[in-house]
Each structure stands twice: as structure tokens, then as C-alpha cells.
Amino acid sequence: MTEQELKILAQQLSNPEGEIGKDVAKMMNETNISMTKETIKALHLMDNDKVLEFGHGNAGHLSYLLDFAENINYTGLEISETMKVEAEDNNPKYLSKAKFQLYDGNKIPFGNESFDKIMTVNTIYFWKNPVEFLNEVYRVLNEHGSFVLTFATKDFMKTLPFTTDFKLYNYEDVELLISQTNFKRMIKSDKEELIASKTGEQVKREYIVLTIKK
């Protein structure tokens, strides 16, 4: 890929737009599905849970999530209008259980302790104010809830040609962020898998699933 093509890909990964964004979102869903499923498993979903997800993309994983328990109420937040519309179009039969909403990527537009479980996959690289955002997550998570944060390691991400402008993290970096927030407990799970990268090569991806609690 040319430098310009890599730049466009990086922009679309952070905020998918238009027809190119839809194609990138489809690729992201396919590439990240194992990470997403491991994240959903780590939520330990229960009947009637209220679930919030940041950066849901085209929400190709929604049916998998909703099958984990009865009467799950799902809310997805996105900065991308293209992804909000695509998620709704991809999941018409689930819209009685799920809603998708736009937000600014900083302030979470819900009241205190609104959700039992919160998740996000591969969005931390784009957070503008990570500590402030994590405290927003803390605010909307209920007292006994869980926040599952999943991200590929810095060492892996540095091998990819399109991550130059991403903010990359290893566990220690995220641990430092969490220590500056109101969160008190964290459980770490190291994962790895062989995937086709977004530029076509086979690569071993190392990633971390963090379960964070009050």
C-alpha cells in the first residue's frame, strides 16, 4: 500500500465514513471477531443486563452477544454516523433489544450507574483524554458492574504500517492510566492469535483483555 493509502486506512479505522468506511468496517469485523468474542465472554453476561459498547462498528457481533443471556438490553455508542446506520441496517430484528447512538467520543450521554456491563475493542488508540474518559466509564457503570477493555499490544501494533498516528499501549501503560482513575480492581488476560492483517499479511497478534471493576 502507498503512504497515502495507509493514511486513508488509518483515518477510516478511527472513524469509518461513507462507502469506504463500510468496507473497512466489514474488514474490521472479520479481523477483530476473535477479540470481540473474547471480550463478550469476559463480560459474564446475565439475564436483564444493561450493556454499553463504545465503537461497535457495523455490529456484526450483536447476535452473538445477545445469545449469552435473556433480556439483555444493549446500547452502542459511535462517533461515526456511517457505523450507526450500518449497525442498524445489519441488525433490524434486534432493534427491540438494541439501540445505537452517536456521541462525541468524550462525554458519555447517560446518567450515573446506568449500565451493568461495558465493553470496547480496539478503540483506546483513539481516545483524546484517556483518564477523563475512563472516569466517565466509571460514572456510568454500576457499583458491581464490569468494564472489559480489549486492545492489541504496543509491540504488535508497531509492526503494522498504518498505526503511526495511533496512541499505542502495553499493559503497563494502561495500568498507569487506570491508577489515575477511580477504578480499583483489574484482571488481565493475555491472548494471541494468527490473523490476516489489514494489508494482507499473516501475522501473530498479541492482545490483552482487561476486566476492570470499581
What does this molecule look like?
This protein is an alpha/beta fold. The chain has one domain (3-213): Vaccinia Virus protein VP39 (Rossmann fold, 3-Layer(aba) Sandwich), CATH 3.40.50. Helix content is 36%, strand content 28%. It has helices at 3-14, 18-43, 62-66, 81-90, 130-140, 154-157, 171-179; strands at residues 50-54, 73-78, 98-102, 115-121, 141-152, 185-196, 202-213. A seven-stranded mixed sheet has the order 3-2-1-4-5-7-6. Strand 2, helix 4 (81-90) and strand 3 form a beta-alpha-beta unit. It is globular, with a radius of gyration of 16 Å. The termini are far apart. The mean pLDDT is 90.
Estimate the mean pLDDT confidence. 90
Coarse structural class: alpha/beta
Total count of domains: 1
CATH domain topology: Rossmann fold
The H/E string reads HHEHEHEEHEHHEE
Computed over alpha carbons, the radius of gyration is 16 Å
Strand order of the largest sheet: 3-2-1-4-5-7-6
